[in-house]
Specification:
205 residues; alpha+beta; single chain; elongated; 5 helices; six-stranded antiparallel β-sheet
Length: 205
């Protein structure tokens, strides 16, 4: 039997509200994962800053065109943006095409975002690779943040607050990242590592 009359309308309204709420949370998480401000995302998507803010606060029902623009700016499919968290599978698989990649200013370092979007506000992890001479310079993260860099291939140098340390394949460096820091590949070979950033970690003395 189908749902008729007011019951059908109520069901549709409830479903729409749940979808809108999930959309807002997803847009906000993806925006923060890319370290984008509302103004940045507005500029890249062509969607007004005020509209994006309303979407994130679940105060509006955006059009399909608006959702499409945001998905393009955030480099994800519309299906991924609209996917409800409660209905999603526990076992997930992401293809290479679904993995966002950040590139350093010199174009020689790449960060593939392999972490779970739901943990981005406190835990982030990446596949990091650097061509010879590549440098990834980062501003300070929030106070108490710590990074862990486990080298898989080659050799990398990390500099934090004037201190410099090197790590080869099989070695791991952990350091405060709540101050400016840099990762360099000083060798003549491509280097790769797994990087984990723990935000809001206990402040180190």
């Amino acid at each position: 039997m189908g749902i008729e009359g007011r019951d059908k309308v109520k069901t549709l309204e409830t479903g729409a509200a749940a979808l809108s709420n999930q959309l807002g949370k997803t847009v906000q998480r993806l925006r923060k994962a890319y370290n984008l401000s509302l103004s940045d995302l507005s500029e890249q998507s062509g969607v007004a800053k005020s509209i994006i803010s309303q979407i994130e606060r679940n105060e509006t029902n955006p059009t399909l065109a608006t959702i499409w623009r945001l998905s393009q700016a955030l480099d994800v499919s519309i299906e991924r943006v609209l996917q409800a968290a409660d209905d999603g599978p526990f076992l997930e698989k992401s293809s290479r095409g679904d993995t966002p990649i950040l590139v350093s200013e010199d174009g020689k370092c790449r960060l593939a975002i392999i972490g779970w979007i739901k943990t981005v506000e406190w835990l982030q992890w990446y596949d990091f690779s650097a061509d010879p001479g590549g440098v990834l310079e980062s501003e300070a993260h929030q106070r108490g943040s710590v990074e862990s860099l486990s080298v898989n291939e080659g050799e990398l140098e990390v500099e934090v607050g004037g201190a410099i340390e090197h790590a080869k394949a099989g070695e791991t460096l952990r350091y405060r990242c709540d101050r400016p820091h840099a990762i360099r590949n000083m060798s003549q070979k491509v280097a790769s590592a797994t990087m984990i950033c723990i935000l809001k970690a206990a402040a180190m003395e």
